[in-house]
Design goal:
38% of the residues lie in helices and 17% in strands. The chain is of the alpha/beta class.
């Protein structure tokens, strides 16, 4: 039995992994799908101090208090920032990292630096509420931005999206343990269109895994292709 921790991306919550988690659990594995502070069902905890470090600590705390080890740690999109930070803080708890169409940061890089083409328009469409700069405000049809087309999935997703604190995207990742995070085995699961549209440096990072998978679907692949994603994760589990 493997232990999976599945970390969501911007504006989402642990809810987005429901389909994949069911399949992994049916195969006998332990699965945790934390929702990061200020998002999803934890949106009521939104405050001006939430940043990337907050979300890294969310996942580290889950591992600590649940007593988890030998973890397959999965991050989608912005979740790639989070899992890289988690791997730096507690590398001894992690068996392998899986980047699910995700950011691949290095020390000192923010998501704003890693993905400027996506982050600049995202910030431009943000707004401030009670002194908190929020982006990714949900709007009708937003699911199409994530490559979701099935009407039932569109409705289900759009009912659950929440705004995301900009500070998380603007704060640079700070690695405290040298290259500890990069010594861990890693798997990349890339959406083909995103891979094709990536600049050369970004594409090199997307393909630097010990194993690399490609899937022809939209960015929210855990929603659009849960069978394929679960099959790939089961291969990682061995």
């Amino acid at each position: 039995m493997a232990t999976f921790v599945l970390v969501h991306g911007g504006g989402h919550g642990g809810w987005c992994y429901q389909k994949v988690a069911r399949r992994l659990r049916a195969a006998g594995h332990e699965v945790h799908c934390p929702t990061l502070t200020g998002l999803g069902e934890r949106a009521h905890l939104l405050n001006a101090d939430i940043d990337l470090d907050t979300h890294i600590q969310d996942v580290v705390a889950l591992m600590t208090f649940e007593g988890l080890s030998d973890i397959i740690l999965v991050g989608h999109s912005y979740g790639g920032m989070v899992i890289t930070g988690v791997a730096d803080r507690v590398p001894d708890r992690i068996r392998e990292l899986v980047y699910l169409d995700a950011a691949h940061p290095r020390d000192g890089e923010s998501l704003q630096i890693v993905a400027p083409a996506q982050m600049e328009p995202t910030r431009a469409m943000g707004r401030s509420v009670d002194g908190i700069e929020l982006v990714m405000w949900p709007f009708p049809g937003m699911a199409s931005f994530f490559g979701i087309t099935d009407p039932a999935d569109v409705t289900w997703t759009e009912e659950r999206l929440t705004p995301h604190p900009w500070k998380c995207f603007g704060q640079p990742l700070r690695l405290e343990n040298g290259d500890a995070a990069f010594r861990l085995p890693r798997t990349n699961i890339n959406c083909i269109q995103a891979l094709q549209n990536s600049p050369d440096e970004a594409r090199a990072r997307q393909l630097d895994g010990h194993r690399n998978f490609e899937i022809d679907t939209g960015h929210d692949l855990m929603i659009t292709e849960p069978d394929a994603v679960a099959t790939m994760l089961l291969e990682v589990a061995g």
